[in-house]
């Protein structure tokens, strides 16, 4: 297996794994937050506007951890610094 | 696939390439400034407000009431700062529907600049409210042991602000691009509608978080509690 193929394989595997594991935690957390907010709205419908505003803000804060994983996987897939390095090394070796 | 609009050059002026991020930021700035200037041109008591002025007043009043809920008795400068952040991010995210327009917030440079301005504004507001000594005292607030953690949290909140906005806007563009290859006619439209919603929510969250950070820096820790107890 050449260096390039190794880097490509590891990058693809890591990108998939980071999105997969990074989605588990925020998914559970968002589910809990939404369930708690729904219970609170059902008990106190008057404060629904405050609750939903806080819910949106906290959902976005929870979701940001998943977004970090997504950004990391995008960097690994499309802007991988080691890939460029290995490509240059392979080109200079060939040419 | 392009992850950032920084790479695409829009046009070249005197040998300096203006990339998409800078050019579209200018367009958003021009839109906001010119619209506000044209609407508030005839701002006199004897002129009845037209519908545009009413729209602007509704937006500004809504921002004002949101800030009032987070930090009561905040200065007007918080409104100027957070309101500008909200309007800029919201408009650049909403202009996603214009074909050919890439939101400047889909570039890490723009969001990092916005987060930097928040990072600089928080100490400024804190120092103007409680003086340099009073502001620096908030870093050793529970005890001196917390000093490194307070400094780290200051930087990590800036990084998280930048990456959150960039990741959300960029992921919308990337997912729409991927779906364009798989199911070209219907699903990209749905994802763009979802992108409008997330864009607006992210603009709201960015402005809210900036307000929360500023209000936590400007809250006078000991005095306000005593005053409320006295009442």
From TrEMBL, chain A:
Alphabetically ordered keywords of this record: ATP synthesis, Cell membrane, CF(0), Hydrogen ion transport, Ion transport, Lipid-binding, Membrane, Transmembrane, Transmembrane helix, Transport
GO molecular function terms attached to this record: lipid binding; proton-transporting ATP synthase activity, rotational mechanism
A GO CC term attached to the entry: proton-transporting two-sector ATPase complex, proton-transporting domain
Keyword RNA-binding (UniProt): no
Domain V-ATPase proteolipid subunit C-like: 13-75
Site (Reversibly protonated during proton transport): 63
Compartment list: Cell membrane; Membrane
CDD domains: ATP-synt_Fo_c (cd18121)
Protein topology in the membrane: Multi-pass membrane protein
UniProt keyword ATP-binding present: no
Xref: SUPFAM superfamilies: F1F0 ATP synthase subunit C
Bilayer-spanning residue ranges: 55-79
Pfam family, one: ATP-synt_C
Protein family according to the UniProt entry: Belongs to the ATPase C chain family.
Role played: Key component of the F(0) channel; it plays a direct role in translocation across the membrane. A homomeric c-ring of between 10-14 subunits forms the central stalk rotor element with the F(1) delta and epsilon subunits.
NCBIfam families per record: alt_F1F0_F0_C (TIGR03322), ATP_synt_c (TIGR01260), PRK13468.1 (NF009998)
Name of protein: ATP synthase subunit c
């Amino acid at each position: 297996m050449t260096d390039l193929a190794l880097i490509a394989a590891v990058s693809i595997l890591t990108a998939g794994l980071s999105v997969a594991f990074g989605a588990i935690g925020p998914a559970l957390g968002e589910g809990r937050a939404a369930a708690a907010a729904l219970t609170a709205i059902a008990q106190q419908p008057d404060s629904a506007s405050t609750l939903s505003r806080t819910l949106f803000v906290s959902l976005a804060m929870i979701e940001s951890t998943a977004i970090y994983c997504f950004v990391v996987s995008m960097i690994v897939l499309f802007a991988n610094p080691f890939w460029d390095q290995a490509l240059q090394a392979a080109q200079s070796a060939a040419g | 696939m392009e992850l950032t609009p920084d790479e695409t050059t829009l046009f070249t002026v005197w040998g300096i390439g203006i990339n998409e991020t800078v050019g579209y930021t200018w367009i958003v700035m021009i839109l906001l400034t010119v619209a506000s200037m044209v609407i508030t041109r005839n701002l006199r008591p004897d002129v009845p407000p037209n519908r545009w002025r009413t729209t602007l007043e509704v937006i500004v009043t809504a921002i004002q009431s949101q800030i009032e809920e987070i930090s009561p008795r905040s200065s007007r400068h918080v409104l100027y700062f957070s309101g500008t952040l909200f309007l800029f991010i919201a408009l650049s995210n909403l202009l996603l529907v214009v074909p050919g327009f890439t939101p400047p917030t889909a570039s890490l440079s723009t969001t990092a600049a916005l987060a930097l301005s928040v990072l600089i504004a928080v100490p400024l507001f804190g120092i103007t409210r409680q003086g340099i000594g009073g502001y620096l005292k908030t870093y050793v607030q529970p005890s001196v042991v917390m000093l490194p953690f307070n400094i780290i949290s200051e930087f990590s909140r800036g990084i998280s602000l930048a990456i959150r906005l960039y990741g959300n806007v960029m992921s919308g563009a990337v997912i729409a691009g991927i779906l364009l290859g798989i199911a070209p006619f219907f699903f990209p439209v749905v994802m763009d509608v979802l992108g409008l919603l997330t864009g607006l929510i992210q603009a709201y969250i960015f402005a809210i978080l900036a307000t929360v950070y500023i209000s936590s820096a400007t809250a006078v820790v000991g005095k306000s509690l005593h005053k409320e107890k006295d009442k």
